[in-house]
Amino acid sequence: MLRTRLMALLTTVLMAAGLAVALTPSASAASPCDTAPEWRQGTWYTAGNVVRYNGSYYIAEHDNPGYSPTISTWYWDPYDCGGGGGNPDPSGFVVSEAQFNRMFPNRNSFYTYSGLTAALAAYPGFANTGSDTVRKQEAAAFLANVSHETGGLVHIVEQNTANYPHYCDWGRPYGCPAGQAAYYGRGPIQLSWNFNYKAAGDALGIDLLNNPWRVQNESAVAWKTGLWYWNTQSGPGTMSGHTAMVTGAGFGQTIRSINGALECDGGNPAQVQSRVTTYQQFAQVLGVPAGGNLYC
């Protein structure tokens, strides 16, 4: 009784002073994230279900039989546990989702921003090495080459189907278990050949030799293969794209590592110029200079 009188008196004093406070306990609305289960493949989800996936939360926009939250924004969208309309990217990627959408206004819905950020954990040094300028230059360089390889993130698979049977090297001890024509170009850097699927899969802990279709069916897997090539492979060049950008060798060397055998040294100057122009545009979107050594 005494406690009730004291609270009433204090409320009167505070109201007289123009202060609005709640002295009675109130239960805050529970967030769906508090009870959100881990996403499980094969589980049926209905619109409105919230799940946890790779440390982030997603809400089902449409009913689906357990599709990965990073496959398509038709089925899933990132969910903000605080109610702010889109959860912040926990990866700290130097490219925001708005900037990504500006770079790829006509992209295929398969190439999700969330798929890209989910893939970053595979190569934590990517766009995370050196100064803020260098980090943004590397992101711009990677995305510019990706844009060139996929027509602006439109194509998921290689368009020339006549090439499909050519990408099997039966001289490898593991052969082509998925089939003669299974190792065509897929993903943001158009991964091709059985030996590249084997190497990328081994590095990422994913069996891509037996199931190369995962690269065209799962956004995060596709992005991981692109990051694998960018961070670890020199191709016809002398260094990886990552090394070229963080050491100051320049954008031209990233072209050489991806398609230098056909484009560099006068091979196809129009294609080189296309890559350079896109890189300059993306660097401008991120607010950094393109730097030197742009051509190969």
UniProtKB/TrEMBL annotation:
The keyword Mitochondrion does not apply. Keywords: Disulfide bond, Hydrolase, Plant defense, Signal. It comes from the Bacteria. Gene3D superfamilies: 1.10.530.10, Carbohydrate-binding module superfamily 5/12, Endochitinase, domain 2. The keyword Hydrolase applies. Residues 36-79 form the Chitin-binding type-3 domain. PANTHER family: CHITINASE 12 (PTHR22595:SF79), CHITINASE-RELATED (PTHR22595). This is Chitinase. SMART domains: ChtBD3. Residues 1-29 form the signal peptide. The lineage of its organism: Bacteria, Bacillati, Actinomycetota, Actinomycetes, Kitasatosporales. Pfam families: Glyco_hydro_19.
